[in-house]
């Protein structure tokens, strides 16, 4: 995943939820596709950087408010080995995570 450059970037996901990406933050693939090269850091470090798009750390996305849309939950589920169908709604993705014993709170 690419890192955001010196300016904060705001994007809407497929559900219309606005996501905020701060300088130095990793960007998921769905968001990177919507950004131009000017949005990214010129030097992309090899070391691991925290992913704040999921509310920080490795926990699940929030269930309400910013960052709680289908896109965030689909990324979270996929990162935990769940094959997310395109037609699944956000709540179906959360249910699939719960069924597999993946944290949703």
From TrEMBL:
What segment(s) does the record annotate as region Disordered?
Answer: 41-71
> How is this protein named in the record?
Conserved hypothetical phage-related protein
The source's domain of life comes to: Bacteria
């Amino acid at each position: 995943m690419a890192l955001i450059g010196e300016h904060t970037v705001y994007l809407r996901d497929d559900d219309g939820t606005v996501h905020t990406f701060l300088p130095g933050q990793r960007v998921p693939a769905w968001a990177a596709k919507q950004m131009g090269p000017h949005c990214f850091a010129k030097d992309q470090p090899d070391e691991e950087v925290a992913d704040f798009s999921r509310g920080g750390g490795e926990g699940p996305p929030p269930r309400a408010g910013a960052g709680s849309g289908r896109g965030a939950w689909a990324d979270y589920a996929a990162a935990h080995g769940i094959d997310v169908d395109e037609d699944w709604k956000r709540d179906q993705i959360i249910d699939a995570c719960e069924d597999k014993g993946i944290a949703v709170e």
